[in-house]
Design goal:
This protein is an all-alpha fold. It has helices spanning 10-20, 25-36, 42-50, 57-67, 71-89, 146-159, 166-186, 191-214, 218-235, 238-254, 260-271, 277-293, 297-313, 328-341, 345-356, 364-380, 384-398, 405-417, 424-432; strands spanning 100-103, 106-109, 112-113.
Length: 435
């Protein structure tokens, strides 16, 4: 049991309940098969108990009936298992590590408090021990290899975002940016090393800006993005400049601004035709999003076509690490989101369902967000009950996340479901979601 929460993770809870009832995994699977009317394999029970898979709401209802326990207890147990899995997957390699231990609402980095708040523990984030501040310890001369060292560290920091919300990473990312900026301000180095340092500052400013945006701190995000834009230009990195402009476009959409399309267009043009295919795919994708959210269906369709062509051109060759997450499924998901925004559910639903079928629950924040557009598309198609079930999944995945975005989308969906309260599944979901 996790002492800080007083909640057993679902695998431990199911194993205890099963053993207490004197049943094997195969016998439990047989009981559940009888309840639902079609076979459930012993391997499924095994995966639940080892957290390889987590029981969905329908399975939790069956388990609650089978063991005579409240569904709410099982839901909390799944949320706990999901948090544990995210922490496990956030760990890095087995070499030198940056260890982050949490207590009393503060993180410690190699023994120093960083002020980052977390509701859990991430031990061994897999980060190289070298910290920007340590590189001035033996003098102010910064060698040519330093940008490479910081680049590798930043790449490992960046991967925390796959599993942890911006509310948990912002202090870490902004602290890293501050340390690297101080290094560049106080050190002595060659012109080439200076360009490398400015590129790292741009990357770290984008990380800090994204975390601030994810945590709902929009003004802080804008400030970091502008820093990244200036740093990328002085570093002469056109692709990174494009990424900064594209993130400014995304922020414009989030705050209801009117410059999103202009920023996204400038982003694609800044990177240019010579940018790596994966970068062109990402920037075209973000341009498509701005057009879709502005109601420009034709322009969105064209940009999506450019993104698809570019991602299929991508052969895994050299590309910036900040675009490591962009693949065909991510482009497909954005395609589905665009069509959902344009209220074209027959185009949105199959695209989203296909890509999300390969998307792991470990990346809970992103999966919750993407599922919210699938739910919205089903509502537009008149499939209220199915939209309700997907919205329930959004709520499940959103639990414990230090990100304002999934719950914001969930509240929007609940508002759209309210007129259908007469339907029993909708009414149950609305009651569950009450503060």
């Amino acid at each position: 049991m996790n002492e800080s929460d007083g909640v057993e993770p679902i695998g431990q809870l199911l194993r205890r309940l099963r053993v207490a009832s004197g049943r094997t995994q195969e016998q439990l699977a047989g009981g559940l098969s009888t309840r639902r009317g079609y076979p459930l394999e012993q391997a499924t029970v095994s995966r639940w108990e080892t957290h390889e898979r987590l029981p969905d709401p329908a399975s939790r209802a069956l388990l609650a009936a089978e063991f005579g326990v409240p569904e709410e207890e099982l839901r909390r147990a799944v949320a706990m298992a999901r948090r544990l899995r995210r922490g496990k997957h956030a760990k890095g390699g087995q070499g030198d590590r940056l260890e982050i231990r949490l207590g009393n609402g503060h993180a410690q980095e190699n023994g120093q408090e960083t002020g980052m708040y977390r509701r859990g523990t991430i031990a061994g984030a897999g980060l190289a021990v070298v910290h920007p501040s340590s590189l001035l310890a033996s003098g102010r001369r910064i060698g040519a290899g330093v940008p490479g060292q910081l680049s590798r560290r930043t790449a490992r920091l960046r991967r925390l975002d796959d599993f942890i919300g911006g509310g948990d990473t912002y202090a870490m990312y902004s602290g890293e940016l501050e340390a690297t900026t101080r290094l560049a301000d106080e050190g002595v180095y060659s012109e080439a090393t200076g360009r490398g340092l400015r590129g790292i500052i741009a990357e770290q400013a984008l990380l800090a800006g994204w975390a601030a945006y994810d945590a709902g701190r929009h003004e802080a995000a804008r400030s970091h993005y502008m820093t990244a834009l200036a740093a990328s230009r002085t570093a002469g990195d056109a692709a990174l400049e494009g990424n900064a402009l594209a993130l400014l476009a995304y922020l414009e959409w989030a705050v209801g601004g009117s410059s999103g399309v202009a920023f996204a267009t400038a982003a694609y043009e800044a990177a240019g035709a010579g940018a790596p295919p994966v970068v062109r795919a990402l920037l075209a994708d973000r341009l498509a999003w701005q057009h879709a959210t502005s109601g420009n269906a034709r322009e969105a369709d064209h940009a999506l076509g450019v993104a698809q062509e570019a991602i299929h051109e991508h052969d895994g060759g050299p590309a910036p690490d900040w675009a490591y997450w962009v693949d065909r499924d991510e482009i497909a998901i954005m395609t589905g989101r665009c069509w959902a925004e344009l209220r074209r559910p027959l185009r949105a639903i199959p695209t989203l369902e296909d890509a999300l079928g390969r998307y792991d629950d470990i990346r809970a924040r992103d999966k919750a967000l993407y599922l919210s557009w699938l739910a919205s598309a089903y509502l537009d198609a008149g499939e209220v009950e199915h939209a309700t079930a997907i919205t329930s999944r959004v709520l499940d995945l959103s639990e414990g996340l230090a990100s304002v975005r999934p719950m914001g989308r969930a509240r929007m969906l609940l508002g759209r479901l309210e007129p259908h309260r007469a339907l029993a599944p909708v009414r149950a979901l609305l009651e569950r979601a009450k503060p």
